[in-house]
Amino acid sequence: MFYDLNIPYTPDDPEISSTLNFLAELGYTTVALSQTLTGKLPPNPTAPSLPRNVPKNLTVLTRVNLTLSDPAQNQRLNTLAQAYDLLAVRPANEKALLNACTNLECDVISLDLSVRHPYHFKFKMLSAAIARGIRFEICYGPGITGSGTDARRNLIGNAMALIRATRGRGIIISSEARKALGVRAPWDVINLACVWGLSQERGKEAVCEEARKTTALAKLKRTSWRGIIDVVDGGEKPKPKSEKSGPKQKGPGNKQKDTPQSDTNSDTLKRKASAEEPEKPLSKREMKRRAKKARFGVVDEESANSTGATS
């Protein structure tokens, strides 16, 4: 199962149908259509309507990308997370990145690796986010779709620095491709991750296992209380069957018995159970006890007979 959790999408996008079909042909099974929000959040956030012509073997999720530049811009993330399947934040500076790693309740931290960052990735800061179940995302689309040599060079350098700082753990790889030409096959993405410094096993986990964990944890956060307690059954008692009103006609074929039906059923069940239960085999101790009792009984009878004859 291969995942691509970042496909930019707008409801009036004419290229989305061909992109989804191409992703399904390449072997992807789950895709997240992302919408980017900047600035002030809308009062009632709603996910965009999904496209109609979706391949049958492709699972489509909704995702929102929130650009953060101010650490205090986290007032309504809970309401925003309830409207989408995935919540990703894109920090614009080091303070916003630190806040996202330590405080924000998000699913993915997606960094724009095609630009040069004025700070270095630190293991202590990134490991705090990984311990909380948050994954870091590397998007290869900006370095492939003709963004220039600078974007490609920055993508390679930043990806290597991110992999080095996270020790290769907690990383997912997405395309962020706006057209089908920017998408690559899963095994091509794994080979690309090997160029950045990941092993082949870690590269496959970034496209398969880590992405699957991201979607599973995001679903747990939204359908349970703090990802711990999930209500499976409400525990309501089944409603009694409504009895039809109206007197029943008595006839020769419909005679009422004096005994209630529940008592007769319980008696018949007890009888059947007692009749069907097989006898348990005797233990060795019980057999010895019975043999000893029988032997002492014969001795008592012989002594009684002898005493009667002498008298």
Automatic annotation (TrEMBL):
GO terms for cellular component: nucleolar ribonuclease P complex. Residues 286-295 have a biased composition (Basic residues). The keyword Nucleus does not apply. It is found in: Nucleus. Its main location: nucleus. Signal peptide: none annotated. It comes from the Eukaryota. Keywords: tRNA processing. Pfam families: RNase_P_p30 (PF01876). GO terms for biological process: tRNA processing. Residues 234-246, 268-285 have a biased composition (Basic and acidic residues). The keyword Glycoprotein does not apply. One of its GO terms (molecular function) is RNA binding. Gene3D superfamilies: Metal-dependent hydrolases. Residues 231-311 are annotated as: Disordered. PANTHER family: RIBONUCLEASE P PROTEIN SUBUNIT P30 (PTHR13031:SF0), RIBONUCLEASE P SUBUNIT P30 (PTHR13031). Belongs to the eukaryotic/archaeal RNase P protein component 3 family. This is RNase P subunit p30-domain-containing protein. The lineage of its organism: Eukaryota, Fungi, Dikarya, Ascomycota, Pezizomycotina.
